[in-house]
Amino acid sequence: MAAGLQVFGQPASTDVARVLTCLFEKDLEFELVRIDTFKKEHKLPEFIKLRDPTGQVTFKHGDKTHVDSRAICRYLCTQFPEDGNRAIYGTGSLERASIEQWLQAEAQSFDGPSSQLVFHLAFAPQLNLTPDEAHIAENERKLQQMLSVYDEILAKNQYLAGDEFTLADLSHLPSSHYITSTQRGRKLFTSKKHVARWYDAISSRPSWQQVVKMQSEHPGTFE
Predict the structure, then answer these.
(1) What is the pLDDT of residues 10-33, one digit of tens each?
(2) What are the GST N-terminal domain coordinates in residue numbering (predicted)?
């Protein structure tokens, strides 16, 4: 049984959402400490010590502190292998190696353009910012290239690393959710048959739906 798991951040953050989804998949109890709790007392020693330099997510388990969302997910899966979804990080070395390949692909090639599109398509309109069409088009092109590769793999597999939902799929959810919440971004996913099927499957998982509910109840502030 997990004890003393704390997540510091806002569910609206893609990094925080990634960690929350993993916690729900692993059926682990945790405390979410929202960053805005510290807004009026942002100089508290505990907050300064825990805060991730990017301001996105901080995870604490006992005396251990982690600030990278993907590393936190790996930690949860290795620290609590028998809890919740046992297959999410693979049940053997070959499966885990495949999952790691996709986690690296997501971090190195998917995250960059998708994060840019999240900001420019989903967040910028809320901030009344003028869209940079050239920048958007360039990142759409990069993401399309990645999704074309995904579509070929997903024509053979139910999920990226095989026929089971894993961290490889989970890690894509937060940014994909924001992109597909816009009409322009949704087309990037629906234009590819197997990617569309895959995204429908992973985004309908109860773990992710719990995170979406948390986001809607406590929308983030973009300051």
Answers:
(1) 899 999 999 999 999 999 999 998
(2) 3-84
Both tokens assigned to 30: 């945790």
What residue spans define the domains of the chain? 5-87+209-217, 93-205
Q: Which residues of 145-160 are buried (b: 16+ CB within 10 A; e: fewer)?
A: ebbeebbebbeeeebb
Look at residues 178, 185, 113, 111 and name the one whose alpha carbon lies nearest to residue 142. 113
Alpha carbons 106 and 191: distance in angstroms, whole number: 20
The confidence band for 44, taking pLDDT boundaries of 50, 70 and 90, is: very low
Which one of 1.20.1050.10, 3.40.50.9100, 3.30.470.20, 3.30.1330.10 gives the CATH number of domain 93-205?
1.20.1050.10
